[in-house]
What does this fold into?
Amino acid sequence: MLRKVNTNDVPEITWTSPRGKFAGAGKQISEALGRKPKSTDLLERHPFDVEILRIPPSKTPYPYHSHGAQWEFYHVISGTGIVRHADGMAPLATGDAFIFLPGEPHALINDSAADLVVYVVADNPIDEADYFPDSKKWTVQVPARRIIRSENVDYYDGEE
It folds into this structure.
């Protein structure tokens, strides 16, 4: 059975942190193709997840973080920006492709006046853990819920 969607028809989900430092929008392409991210059945989870990530001007979508087991591939479709990584900062331009292995911290920053649009492909392993170096915070993602493992803090605490 062919699973097909037109990405123009996939709704965009937007988010903003409480103080507005973090903001982004994403089209969850794999979910539109039937991926069930909370399922533990690998046929329902799919082996990877594809998102079209749109980062508004002067924003970063997520705090600087690393993944315990997840790989992430990025391909810049349009716009320019900066990627923060363990060795510093690197400029981003349309056509750039890069990858982060598990344990490699990263964050995308749109430092331009136009949207930065990026394809993101991740393998999203079950029970993934994330580390946030700036706030020294961990999260453990379980298919049914997200648990922050530290003091009782919110996802954005210590990041803004």
